[in-house]
Structure formats: structure tokens, C-alpha cells
Amino acid sequence: MTQETLKVTIDRGPDTAHVQTVFDVPAYTNQTVLDVVSWVQQNADPTLSYRYACRVGMCGSCAMMVNGVPRWTCRTHISKVLRGNAVTIAPLRNLPVIKDLAVDMDPFFDKWVAAEGVHHGALTRDDPIAPVDTSTAARAVADAGIECINCSVCYAACDTVTANDDYLGPAALQRAWTLLNDAKDDGRAAILDAVSDKGGCHNCHSIGSCTTYCPNDLDPMSAIAGLKRETAKSLFQRWR
Length: 240
Description:
Helix content is 36%, strand content 13%. By secondary structure, the protein is an alpha+beta fold. The protein has two domains: 99 residues, Ubiquitin-like (UB roll); 134 residues, Alpha-helical ferredoxin (Fumarate Reductase Iron-sulfur Protein, Chain B, domain 2, Orthogonal Bundle), CATH 1.10.1060.10. It has a five-stranded mixed β-sheet. A two-stranded antiparallel sheet has the order 6-7. Helix 7 crosses helix 10. The longest helix has 20 residues. It is elongated and about 65 Å long. The chain starts with a strand and ends with a helix.
């Protein structure tokens, strides 16, 4: 990219009545969206609030809406998302805005807990460490799911979350599916009860935005489908 000026619109979110500010930002080779946001904060508007940490796609904290699409801004090159040399950056959808581009993650993690997305141990510290058979299909599913880094991109992408405040969301349900397939987790009944309750997996419309936009190439939609199958099996078993 040659040296030129980008038109960067910062949309500070619905909690500020979508206040938009346009900045002229110099373009550089290999510039990321996070680089652009940082330039604005460091050179044009020191009051701009946003969140980031690692800058290399490990923490997920820099996720924002870029031209209406949820993305990790540290791993998104600005040249890939420009529209006529312009870009609009906004806070993640479906979460309360604290200030500017920083959102409150509490609702996201509250739903993680509500989905029983915590380890249910059956052993004590006095028990020997239980071996894990890494060759099983269930272990492969669990291993894939643990790559979620809680960036909430899938949560922001989900239209069901937008329409239904009670819906647990794809990340929480992905975590529940991961634990359900983990041989070391002893919370099967609690997990199935949680994900089949109000706001659970059966609210999913299988649109697939969660899988489409996951930066780590996870497949929450298939995880939710798995939960639907297991909760249905559990219900039929209770009727016997």
C-alpha cells in the first residue's frame, strides 16, 4: 500500500447514540485495524477507549466490529477491509458498551457459567491423575473446543443473541459441548440440564454465523447441534 490517507470512522456504539467521528489516518504497509485504532488514540483523540493486550491473536481482547463484521483487529490487515479507502470501526455487537470501542464482557461470561461451562471434577488432589485416551473421537472433539479464547466474536456475530437476551450464545454452548466430551469432566447431567433450559441450545436457528466468523476456525454450530442431539437422547431416556 502506498502512503496515502485513510478515512476511518469510529462509531462509538448504540449507548452513545451512534456518535461517529471521522479521522484521516496515514496508511502504512502491513497496517492492521488495531494499528489504525491505536494511531487515532495516540495522535488524534487521546480520549478514545478500546481494549487490546497481546497484539498477536492469542488473547482475543481486541475484537471489534469492522465494517459491520466482528473481527480480531490485531490480525486483520486494513488493506483487506477497506471500502473505497474507508473503514468503519465499532464496538462488538450484542454487548453493553462501556465507552467508545470497549464493551462489558460480563454478560458473555455470565452465560458461560449458566451453561455449566466450568470443570466438574470427580477426583480429589489425593487421587492419582487419571489417564486420558487421546485416540478417542470424544477427545478429538474436546481438544478442538479448548482452542476457544473467549474473544466473543461468535457472540457478536449471532443474530439469535441479538433477538433473544436469554440465549446462552455460541461460545458458552461450545464450551458445554467441550466438557460433555471430556472424559475428566463429571458434570454431564448438570450440563445437559443447563443447555436444554430456557435460552439453551434449542434456541439456535443454525444460521452459522458463529462458525463463519470464528477467528480460530472452530465450529460452534456443530457443537450446538451435538448438544441438541444429546439433550434429545437424555429426554427420551427419561421417558423410558
